[in-house]
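User: Can you help me understand a structure? I only have the sequence.
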Amino acid sequence: MSNNNPISKTHFWALGFLVLGLLLVGTAGYMVIEGWGLLDAVYMVVITLATVGYREVHPLSPAGMIFTILLIVFGIVTLYYVVRVFGEYILASRFDEDFKNRQMHNKIQNLKDHHIVCGFGRVGEKVVEELIKEGAPFVIIESDPDLAAECQAKGWLCLAGDATNENTLLEAGLMNAQGLIATLGRDSDNVLTVITAKTLNSGLFIVARANTDGAIAKLLRVGANRAVSPYQIGAFRMATFALRPGVADFVDNVLDLGKSEVQIADVTVGSNSPLVGGPVDRYLSNRKSGVSVLVVNRSDGHAIINPAGDTDIQPGDRLILMGNRNNLSEVEKLFNR
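Assistant: Let's start by predicting it. Here is the structure, written out as tokens:
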């Protein structure tokens, strides 16, 4: 088997059917030629193919002897081929880097609705940890080969390449991705990544890191849906902890999606949803549903914070909901009808 032709699942199934077919033909042959029962025929085929040297279960006729010789010849050739193929596959999967890369690329091409994380530095690593908590599929693009190898060693899908290059983004499954998170260390790289990604896939939701205050406006202008300054957010959180520690603790508990039972969901109202045309409290009052509507974002950009119970729900509204996991799951079914 050539390293340029990795074994596919179809190949594995074919090998399995080959061995099974050999077993069936041998069993049928002994039953027809010698008139043996099923168990005796299967036993004879197994000890013959295994070449263990046990005696025959019954004396063989001349036709049975010829059939046994043919079965041994074909059996040894078949089993040798199967063992060799499986052995090469195991060795390649463990030691052949090209084979591992092909496997990884095949997995990436089969992904849909995943997130592409550009950069595995301090910020990118934390982003990946949050995606793992949520069980969200992702692909990492990292230019440093050592960091890329570290990601791959952890079993994560990671490409060693330049996130600003359109071929690398396409290789990461950009056209099937749900979102892209640009966490590169330089603002210029993040801007170029956003431009390239948005040009290739205009419907992609992009969150970009801004290392300076001035970069936020640039990133939003070139197509990022959200621009985040880690330093600005860090400073805000530190000040909030100092001034309002109780509020900060509550927000932390809510946003810790991996541990907290309380969740915040962002859900869009479809045109066929039973919510359309009715007031918030018809289905979404805390007393009825166990969830609270924090914000109603209209399609025109208007936001209604802490909406009253008689606020009408319109098609395309995005609702920010808070509640426990089970209640949110039940309410979200209304949006998906």
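Now, to help you interpret it: Residues 9-94 form a domain with the Helix Hairpins fold (CATH 1.10.287.70). The first strand starts at residue 115 and ends at 118. Let me know which part you'd like to focus on.
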